[in-house]
Amino acid sequence: MELQLFGINHKTSKVSERxxxxxNDTNQxxxxxxxxxxxxDDIESFFGISTCNRTExxxxxxxxxxxxxxxxxxxxxxxKNISDESFYILxxxxxxxxxxxxxxxxxxxxxxxxxxxxxxxxxxxxxxDIGILGRDxxxxxxxxxxxxxxxxxxxxxxxxPLSVSGLALKLVKNIFENPQDQxxxxxxxxxxxxxxxxxxxxxxxxxxxxxxxxxxKIKLNDSYEIFSSSLESLHDELEHTDIVIASSxxxxxxxxxxxxxxxxxIRKNKPMLLIDLGVPRNIEEEIKNIEQxxxxxxxxxxxxxxxxxxxxxxxxxxxxxxIALEAQAALDG
Length: 333
Hints:
The protein is α/β, with parallel strands linked by helices. 43% of the residues lie in helices and 18% in strands. The strands form three sheets. The chain has a six-stranded parallel sheet with strand order 9-6-5-10-11-12. Strands 2-3-1-4 form a four-stranded antiparallel sheet, sandwiched between helices. The chain starts with a strand and ends with a helix. The model has no long low-confidence stretch (mean pLDDT 89).
């Protein structure tokens, strides 16, 4: 038995492929039942993670069965039309190194970003809570968290880090000379959406509204809080919005081309900036064809110049060395 993984990420696939392969709480339970039925004791346990950058499945199992597990995973989740070249498969030391690079932010679109560490821990905790993790995988995941902390604290990989929410803010500031004068609508109320709102507010941008599936209070401090309205109000809110930042969990786009065309007509064609941080996407790609609508996907905003990238690249090399040594020690122990 050994640690193995497979997945797709921003390096191997476009967002149009990544949004087809999503592991969530519901299908992870379905997948656990199916893999147990097919592979019996050849798999000790597994869990998956999906972020805007990647979907990966980690498991401890009999050697050299990754390809078979991948095929069964795609079959039971009814995932098609993703090129075989988009997937990578790793095992043993390479797998543990990769997981640690992911959790520490070294393998992210935004080199050194911090959000992925929390996302990894959250995915691990959820899998543990629903009872699909075995002893060996729990041990290895705890090692990943320990190694990732060491890689970040013993290097400057997080030097002035830009997160996904930070990149969204940077794009807003690049496009608008006075972003504090713009009306902002944040779609979603999860951790990423709340990080976006906090970053906007910290930079003096406070004309912010939120829409979400359920009404939710987002409190930033004692003097500033937002109550998200329901998705039923989305079309009305678009009519008064200059900047839309979407990060909701959804299987289908929430904002369609017709809704933006209607909003622009009422706005007398005053331009709108739309930033889609969702995977699957929250905003229909066809909106890019509308002259007064400027739509950026998660892959688009990656191309924004990253501050201190050179220095963080040097620190990343140091972090990779730490990870490789610690991963070997963990497996030897």
